[in-house]
Amino acid sequence: MQITVQDILAWPETAVLPPDAPRSGRELQLVQVAQAFLINASENPGDCDVHLEIAATADKNAPRVIIETPVDSEYCSNRQLIQSTLAQHGFKMDTTHGGDLITPLPISVLGLPFEDFEHGRGSPQVATVWEIHPAVVTFQ
Fold first, then answer.
1. 33: domain CATH number?
2. What is the CA radius of gyration of the chain?
3. How would you classify residue 90: left for phi > 0, otherwise alpha for psi between -120 and 50, otherwise beta?
4. pLDDT (tens digit, 9 = 90+) per residue, 71-121?
5. Helices (H) and strands (E) in the chain, counts
6. Could you tell me how far CA 52 lies from the centroid of its own chain?
């Protein structure tokens, strides 16, 4: 199902769910955000997931949504793509380096929506607990 960053930002948030609650509702629907801008990138030191913040525009003050690419082996090639593409743009990302990109990059995202209450929300521009997690990123 095709969605936009604006769609995700408009989704209602439920009460905090237990960490072991099974996925339900929209969390079971594969979605694609065909056009977004990667604004911020980091690697979570706790679980080593790649955390990316996307927005509908390249404006660094725009509301953002987190997408996560897990450390699991099936995501290894996409994680390598993310790191090498960011490196080509002079950006280093690991557990001690990350943050806003100098120039936001156009991307598309494929993955599963997830209401993530488990960790901090990233930058102050992150405007929802909804994430795309797990996610696969394509640079445009």
1. 2.40.50
2. 14
3. left
4. 999 999 999 999 999 999 999 998 899 999 999 999 999 999 999 876 667
5. 2, 6
6. 4
Given the DSSP bridges, would you call strands 2-3 and 31-43 parallel, antiparallel or unpaired? parallel
Residue type, 76: C
Decide if 32 is inside a domain. Answer: yes
- Supply the pTM of this predicted model: 0.94
* The token pair that represents 100 in the structure block: 């806003």
What is d(CA 119, CA 65) in angstroms, rounded to the nearest whole number?
Answer: 14
Query: Residue 114 domain-assigned?
Result: yes
Which of 65, 51, 67 is CA-nearest to residue 110? 67
Q: Is residue 17 part of a domain?
A: no
Q: Where are the beta strands (DSSP E) in 70-125?
A: 99-115
